[in-house]
Design a protein that fits this description.
mainly alpha, 2 domains, two-stranded antiparallel ribbon, elongated
């Protein structure tokens, strides 16, 4: 199943812990009927979808950004290498080690240059991406699917 569609379904159905009436409340906050919301959130539907603006509103209302994460991962899958849960975890530790090296170098003279700050931000983005891939690997492992990560 498409990970983006699954993220949409999970975001809508797990709002406020999936409590009774929460789905209806979320639909009202989105300005659509409960049935339209169900149709748009259905992962097997090919006829009804949320607009980009609605997806942004949905994520902001729920404070759940799985949809965005799934879209970013789907975008980066082209040319991906196969990596399982353990390899993904080891990749995170490698990226953390690189971050430690960057910080150690930056703090050697007691101040951060603009370049060192940019290097830190860039490395943090790589760490975040590695963590997203671990989440995907774990999720796909549970589903019994082949794990693909960059």
């Amino acid at each position: 199943m498409n990970q983006v569609k699954l993220a949409i379904w999970s975001t809508t159905h797990e709002y406020k812990g999936g409590k009774n009436g929460a789905f209806r409340e979320l639909a009202a906050l989105m300005g659509i009927s409960e049935q339209v919301m169900r149709n748009k959130a259905c992962p097997t539907s090919d006829n009804s979808h949320f607009s980009p603006e609605q997806l942004l509103t949905l994520q902001n209302l729920t404070d759940d950004y799985r949809i965005n994460n799934a879209m970013r991962l789907a975008e980066k899958r082209a040319g991906a290498t196969e990596r399982g849960v353990t390899e993904s975890l080891l990749h995170i530790t490698h990226e953390l080690g690189s971050m430690a090296h960057i910080i150690t170098e930056a703090e050697a003279d007691g101040k951060y240059t603009e370049r060192e700050k940019a290097d830190c931000i860039s490395q943090l983005n790589r760490i975040e991406k590695a963590c997203e891939h671990l989440k995907l690997a774990i999720h796909q492992q549970e589903a019994g699917k082949l794990v693909r990560a960059v």
